[in-house]
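Long-time lurker. I teach an intro course on protein structure, and each term I like to show students one example going from raw sequence to a predicted 3D structure in token notation. This year I'd like something fresh instead of my usual example. Would anyone be willing to generate the tokens for the chain below so I can use it in lecture? Attribution to the forum is fine with me.
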Amino acid sequence: MNRETINQPMAQGLPLDEARARLRAEGPNELPAARRRDIAAIALEVLREPMFLLLVSAGAIYLLLGDTGDALMLLGFVFVVMGITIYQEYKTERVLEALRDLTSPRALVMRDNVEHRIAGREVVRGDLLLLAEGDRVAADAVLLSSNDFAADESLLTGESVAVRKIAQPETDGVKPGALEIQAPGGDGLPFVYSGTLIVAGRGVARVLATGPRTEIGKIGRALQEQTADATPLQKEIARLVRNLAIAGALLSLLLVVIYGWARGGWLHGLLSGITLAMSILPEEYPVVLTVFLAMGAWRISRHRVLTRRIPTVEALGSATVLCVDKTGTLTHNRMTAKQLVVQDAMFAVADSPAALPEQFHELVEFAILSSETEPFDPMEKALHELGAHYLADTEHLHRDWELAHEYSLSPELLALSHVWRARGREEYVVAAKGSPEAIADLCHLDQTQVETLNLQIDALAAQGMRVLGVARASHRGTEWPDVQHDFDFRFIGLIGLADPVRPGVAAALDECRAAGVRVAMITGDYPATAAAIAREIGLDAGSGGIVSGPELNHMDDAALRERVRHSNIFARMVPEQKLRLVSALKANGDVVAMTGDGVNDAPALKAAHIGIAMGGHGTDVAREAAALVLLDDDFASIVRALRIGRGIFDNLRKAMAYIFAVHIPIAGLSLIPLLLGWPPLFAPVHIVFLEMIINPACSIAFEAEPAESDVMRRPPRDPRQPLFGMRTLSLSLLQGMALLAATLAVSGLALHENMPEGAARAMTFLTLVVGNLGMILVNRSWRHGLRTTLRGRNPALWWVIAGASAFLALSLSLPFLHKAFHFEPITAAQAALCLAAGLCSALWFELLKPIRAA
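-- Reply from a regular --
Happy to contribute to a lecture. Here you go:
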């Protein structure tokens, strides 16, 4: 740490060019991470896979048998299939890398006197960090200015008690090695540490150390070594792969023994065993799962929703309840002052040259004094805009006053106060704002005054407005009271603010209703305000009516579980109550998606099955606790993510069912002819060709398939429902057996007619490939007929089919490929028979679609 890092003008921050130079020289602000995979690393992993080891073994056996042509052909195909696999893996890796960059922690820095929101990894030594409650500190820094500032350093110290921080003047300097982690309790030295959390106040800090040079960087790599548990779907796929691999290994070993014992050709038996193992080996399953979830996360991100935890994509289709904040999600979070109330007088605010009556000046004046001088909150921005419009040429704006003390909002008292040192006055001026009932409590209003106030509040709330109360007090002396109640407040009046509803909310709600997803609105506003907004967007409150925060506090868990079954609006809620709502809904068996933006929302976001943080106005803590981050804070984006999630799971199930079905005839044709005493119909080269169709089909074509048109007109998927239920397995088995029967029938007919072995092999192969392509087309949709799906757009699918068809035609027509595949020429009539058998074996499945779709 150099002294020069803290001796620059505090207001301006680093010049942009200097920041870029330091980033290049000192590296990104991130902990040492696991080495990201490049193409060479991916290729090495692919070469270690069992499928490629089997291919190389088969090539070696061909060389031992003196069949150099077959060996070279097979090894050539190895490189082709390896290229396809590497492309798929590399594409997935790039998608995951892009998502990692997008979801990395953000930091607000000052550079060239302009605020910049940047990725945390781009913070450099000397940067000015602008910190606020809910932020995660991006680097080790010294605090230069602060206001009621406290940090949670439990990540480093293990202590959960927040540490208060008081800034020191920048000119004091910081010596190298002065950074020490402070014990919690009392006032710590003004250092903030990378990875710690700001739990109160605001501050400005100068960065002293980044990346591995930070305190957390010195501790080591413990955090990055944590791994998440496998999801139910991942566990299910792992079990399936294990069982198929064991079955394949046993059958292959049995085939080697039978072939060698009965025919005496142990090398040929080993080759047949390898062929059978390759036909059964389920290497596509884990690849498909990874590709689908990663690409799904990427597709969702294109709709302004970032996926922080990839397995969440799997859960989206199961959501039964969507709990959303009103402000900023259903509405724009752009507050505008609409009504002012002082005693019995009301003033409708409008952008007009009409002057604000004098009796309302004090109300606007103290509403601004109780707000931040540079507001971030939309409500406080609206109050400043109101003052700029009506009080610009009056004595009621006090830019020269100094903020002396603050009292923060708390769950117990929904009001805050600012104490100001006024120019030319001996006493301090205190301004308070908050919920009208909290302000009435501070002002000690009597019952009659409260009843009158409630009528005014109800009138504003019924118009969908958020209502604030404003009060004032004065204070002499230098000792601050412990609580706001100790000031002698005088009630000034009410301000009604409106937040327009987002235009796409009503349509998105209709879509949720059709999809069987219940939407619950959560707001801190009055029940009347919530009811007005609900009417505007078409949200039914439910038979249980509106539940208020005070009501919820008086319910036990059983009563709350029953109430949340029938209520869709929760008003006057504080963030801490969200966790109880999530717990109650989960206890009822619901799959819960919950939105949140504040520090106190984090427990509920973590407890929900799908936590959704606000990316626009949310805190870093909320984003880190959530599984999804909503970049535009728009409710319609959540619904789009649900729709995409359902489509992804549908397509994943189709791809997995296709893989299972298509391997049945491949495995059967590798085993059954040998058991029947027929000549071997398939060799490893044929399996490789089929894999060149199967791999892109299941991991590219099916992934790119558009969602079914009725995907949002079905009830949510039961999360306990396996990917492969008995119905899916049975129908896939039936589909595979039909194609196996067709190919065996063609093979048997060819051999019965004493056709050459190569011709029988060619006919069998043609039947299988055509049936395979037909199976891909049929499985595009389990709900719509082939005529409908053929009109659907999926370029990747047609590239796969066109490429397979072209190569199949070449293999049947070019002499050198005849030799490579051990084919002999077949007639046009024989080819037509194979085409008919293959297509019929696939297309008959159209008749079973109603059963599969049920």
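Some talking points for your students: Residues 1-10, 171-178, 181-187, 221-228 have pLDDT under 50 and may be disordered. The longest strand covers residues 140-152.
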